Amino acid sequence: MRARVRVDTLSASPMAMKVYLQSLGCPKNLVDSETMLGLVARDGGEIVLDPAAADVVVVNTCGFIGDAKKESIEAILELGRLKEADPTKRLIVTGCLVQRYGAELQDSLPEVDAFLGTGDFDRLPQLLNKGGTGDATIYGGAAHLLPDLAIPRVRTGHFFSAYLKISEGCDHTCSFCIIPKIRGRHESRALDSVVAEASALVRDGVIELNLIGQDLTAYGRERRDGSSLAALLRELARIDGLRWIRLLYNYPRYVTDELLDTIAQEEKVCSYIDMPLQHISDRMLRAMRRERDGAAVRRLIDRMRQRVPGVAIRTSFIVGFPGESDADFAELLTFVKEAHFERVGVFCYSREEGTAAASLPGQLPERVKRHRFGLLMRAQANVAAAFNRRLVGSTQEVLVCGEDDQGRCYGRLFSQAPEIDGVVFLREQSPPGRIELTRITESGTYDLMGSLLSHGTVEDARSLPDVALKSDQRGAGL
What we know:
single chain; alpha/beta; six-stranded parallel beta sheet; 12 helices; 20% strand; disordered N terminus
């Protein structure tokens, strides 16, 4: 995804170094990209949206799985061709791919002028000021760099919504995952730092915050100062002007009753929990080193739904893990059909060097992985379509996002996270950034159609007698 930069944040100095940045991978990577843009702007650089117009092109890469690595390499090569046409340009590569394969990249990509790892991207201004070209240098000493208000950030995308990174790194040892080796041990930001950034974002027009980290539920545990995800949510809920707070990337281990009760009780906290489960078979969970068995997963799901009535659960599963038998997959398929998750993502297992699973016996052929992927996705599509059908005729709060590339006005429910979930297409136009009461009129497998009941915020419409607001709908299947 190319970073979309708000024009009013750009430097306009005619003599400034012109910098183009392409951001790939997850929202956590996007926050790093926005920080790099902030550093460029702070030091007088000019951010441009056309790589051909740039003096320096930057690619912030993802190195998580095979497809992401391929996309990153293709992006580097594509931008490298610009440098072939104009040798005065410089090409800088940053991010997870560098942290994971720095030396190999240096040997295979001579067109790159410098490589910055995941914890060293604050060196970017130094490299911009260095000037000239020469042998590529690799900076990859630190595993991660925690956000801080002292480090500027240029937000991209919608003005009313932002990702808020509250921690970095991961202490889990899942056998399929390379992230702990790339991003390092888990480290939480100070609670005051997170709240301060959240307040600044709200003052800048943000009404929706999506909390991100490799493991949100571990937030604060290592600080030993009373910080926790539940405590953070309560503090964030006190910020005037903030409307929605959503939790992304929650590991199952630390989902406490206190956390669930906070989600249920704080109206600004969306009843939405993104919690990758990866599998349900005991055998597969052990092989994946997921710290839970299938029975514990089922109990956790039941506890979440009991303590947070109407919670929307998003999860993800891996198919084709080494040794996954027909029986293991059949158990997973049945579980997805019966658990009725509101949102599900499915990934084919990617054999990643440096992970414990890469050396496991029973590696499955790609055709088996793809077949199982299709079966699981079709099963979830039926669940998702049934869920959406139940919403037809109901009244929902919809955050208006603007128009898509076909000119259709759309928005999102609290149960629809940006970029990864479906949307609500609106029959009427409304300014982006407003939360509108909307009657759901049609449903598809993942998307909905709705008609606005008012052209004002929910506060403007609280006197309407025939609608139920979100706080009254938590037990109504949302």
